[in-house]
Write a structure and sequence with these properties.
With 480 residues, the chain is mainly beta. The protein contains three helices and 28 strands.
């Protein structure tokens, strides 16, 4: 029998989709929201760039935007310093951390930046995309002094995301363009950071998003703990996809679409919407075909207003998450506070909303923050067994490697069998019960699976794993 094999030796096998699963019984999938760590840079700043490690300076670097584009550094990724760069004058002084000419045109506004450790040319160590609409490519040796490339821009609207894909060794620009579904995500790629492909539609909203929009809008309006935007006109607006960061991770692509849910139309000249933005998860294996994760549950959702917190109206990824040395996943995101200005609330007779929630006027001067959330390694989605759950994996080759799992069985247990891929029968010495050591009853991001006898884990034909989960969660498995 010919099998399409998975490869748990090359990458950890996760459960955001069903790619590694042959069958399940008594199992449910759970999306896990990251633990919110709080704001790390306040005063209304935003970023579409993740912090990046500088191997030469031994610091984290981060570029962020407000009225200007700024630069900040950190030794731990949590506490950030704003060095005085002395590059450009602002308010009569060069004692600031501004990195782009405040007097320059829009094409000189840095929107994305990647530190490329693999490029042998030091003048191309940093690669950036500029402008607030179409994206223009530039290169730099230090992230401050830029040479713009004489190449056509990538067509885009005001939003985009940008990253490097180590699997296909190409640069990925996820730009925003309109479709009949409203704001949508298009992908443009480049192997050389000179020539970019024509953007191709990869992700947009649909009728399910629109129904979710109706429900989520009602939740905010009807729940007195949340701030209602200044314009609510009861029209049936469609949800849109504001942008989507993409994270190449363990052989797959994890998308973080920001879903745009309108409340009311803002009249000209602004011609936009009052809205909420929240972050979901999606997954792809080729960058072009995407599957929504966990029935579109929120990965990072809004918070009720408490007069001190952020993330109460709009949430957007700063860029792809950062994987720390211990495997922990750090998610940096934009958390915006108020769904409108003071003038909006007064103009549209909604100041009573601010009065009701006792909103301090000072918060309008600190309208958002760059925030941090943390997630266990591989911790996006788990497969969970309650009283009795069984998972059978797709086949793979096992030629002497050890098996490891990332799992939480503090309240239960996990047994693991090695079974023949074709007959589905357990191999002698690797079955439950009878020839199995005590089950896994712990919480570990890397637990070695052992069997009763010191068998040589070399099998001539493909095998599968059969997991028995009792009140336990399994996040991933792999071979080493």
């Amino acid at each position: 029998m010919n099998f399409k094999l998975i490869n748990p030796k090359e990458h950890k096998q996760l459960f955001l989709d069903d790619h590694v699963i042959e069958s399940m019984k008594g199992i449910k999938k759970s999306l896990h929201q990251p633990q919110k760590w709080g704001p790390v840079i306040k005063s209304g700043y935003q970023s579409r760039i993740s912090p990046q490690w500088n191997t030469e300076k031994k610091i984290w670097e981060w570029w962020y935007m407000g009225e200007n584009i700024h630069y900040t550094t950190s030794t731990d990724g949590e506490h950030w310093e704003k060095p005085s760069l002395g590059l450009y004058e602002w308010n009569g002084s060069k004692d600031n951390n501004i990195v782009c000419d405040p007097e320059g045109d829009g094409h000189q506004r840095l929107f994305h930046i990647i530190r490329d450790e693999s490029d042998p040319d030091p003048t191309r160590r940093y690669k950036g995309l500029f402008s607030s609409s179409d994206r223009y490519a530039g290169i730099s040796n230090d992230g401050f002094n830029w040479t713009m490339l004489d190449t056509p821009p990538i067509p885009s609207q005001d939003e985009s995301q940008f990253t490097y894909d180590p699997f296909t060794k190409q640069y990925l620009a996820m730009v925003k363009q309109p479709t009949k579904w409203g704001r949508s995500v298009f992908l443009s790629t480049s192997k050389d950071f000179v020539n970019f492909t024509e953007p191709k539609l990869i992700f947009c909203s649909d009728e399910v998003d629109w129904e979710n929009c109706r429900r989520r809008v009602r939740e905010v309006i009807e729940n007195p703990s949340y701030i209602t935007p200044p314009i609510v006109d009861d029209q049936d607006y469609m949800a849109e996809v504001y942008n989507m960061a993409v994270m190449p991770y363990q052989g797959i692509y994890i998308g973080f679409p920001t879903i745009f849910n309108p409340f009311g139309a803002i009249p000209p000249p602004r011609t936009n919407f009052t809205r909420i933005n929240q972050i979901e998860l999606s997954v792809s294996r080729d960058l072009y075909n995407w599957e929504r994760v966990a029935d579109r549950a929120l990965f990072i959702g809004l918070e009720p207003w408490d007069n001190t917190n952020y993330g109460t109206s709009q949430l957007l990824m700063s860029g792809q998450p950062v994987v720390r040395e211990n495997g922990e996943i750090w998610i940096y995101y934009n958390s915006l506070r108020l769904p409108g200005s003071i003038e909006d609330y007064k103009t549209y007779n909604r100041a009573k909303e601010l009065f009701r929630l006792n909103v301090d006027l000072k918060v309008f001067n600190d309208s958002g923050a760059l925030s941090l959330a943390k997630l266990r390694p591989d911790g996006f989605v788990s497969v969970d067994g309650d009283e009795s759950g069984i998972i059978v994996t797709k086949p793979f080759l096992m030629k002497g490697e050890n098996l490891y799992i990332n799992a939480d069985a503090r309240w239960g247990e996990i047994y693991t069998e090695i079974i023949d891929a074709e007959t589905m029968k357990a191999h002698p010495g690797f079955w439950v019960p009878g020839e199995h050591p005590p089950p896994f009853r712990d919480d570990s991001i890397k637990a070695k699976v052992d069997w009763k006898y010191p068998h040589d884990l070399v099998f001539e034909k493909p095998v599968r794993l059969k997991f028995y989960l009792h009140q336990a969660r399994l996040y991933s498995f792999w071979l080493e």
